[in-house]
């Protein structure tokens, strides 16, 4: 599982590294899960990675956390193990609030993006 951008600094994994992880995961026949819950807070309009543009990658557009598509039973067993150990899904009310904020709070989000970029600059300076 890769998380990009990270919280609270907004650090992102470069697209080439994500593609390399995807290649490695395919070669080893393991699932690569990209948690992009904060994708709207990236400070660029460039794609986070090239995977969705490559049909051979098998990548699918993410849904809000906690909403899973039908998967093969063996993959579902593994995902359920992960969910049992890691709290990665917010309650539905939080998901609804996130959706409202992401679709209706553009100015607020742009201000937060600038703040996150400033924090990242401070971390780089330090």
Number of strands: 2
Distance from first to last alpha carbon? 28 Å
Structural class: mainly alpha
Instruction: Please estimate the helix content.
Output: 40-55%
Q: What is the mean pLDDT?
A: 76
* Count of discrete structural domains: 1
The number of helical elements comes to: 4
Strand content: under 5%
Which consecutive residue ranges, at least 5 long each, have pLDDT under 50?
Answer: 63-69
Short overview:
This protein has four helices and two strands. The chain has about 130 residues and is mostly helical.
Describe the overall structure.
This protein is mainly alpha-helical. It has one domain (2-125). It is built from four helices and two strands; from the N terminus they run βαβααα. The protein has helices at 15-28, 73-85, 92-104, 106-125; strands spanning 2-3, 34-35. A two-stranded parallel ribbon has the order 1-2. Helix 1 links the parallel strand 1 and strand 2 (34-35). The longest helix has 20 residues, at 106-125. The protein is globular and about 40 Å long. It starts with a strand and ends with a helix.
Descriptors:
single chain, 126 residues, mainly alpha, 4 helices, 48% helix, globular
Helices and strands in order:
Elements: E1 2-3, H1 15-28, E2 34-35, H2 73-85, H3 92-104, H4 106-125
Parallel strand pairs: 1-2
């Amino acid at each position: 599982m890769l998380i990009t951008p990270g919280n609270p600094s907004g650090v992102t994994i470069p697209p080439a590294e994500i593609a390399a992880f995807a290649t490695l995961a395919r070669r080893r026949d393991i699932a690569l899960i990209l948690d992009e819950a904060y994708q709207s807070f990236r400070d660029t309009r460039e794609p986070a990675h090239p995977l969705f543009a490559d049909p051979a990658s098998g990548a699918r557009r993410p849904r809000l956390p906690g909403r899973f598509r039908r998967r093969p039973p063996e993959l579902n067993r593994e995902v359920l193990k992960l969910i049992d150990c890691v709290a990665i899904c917010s309650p539905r009310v939080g998901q609804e609030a996130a959706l409202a904020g992401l679709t209706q709070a553009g100015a607020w989000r742009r201000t937060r993006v600038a703040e996150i970029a400033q924090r990242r600059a401070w971390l780089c300076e330090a």
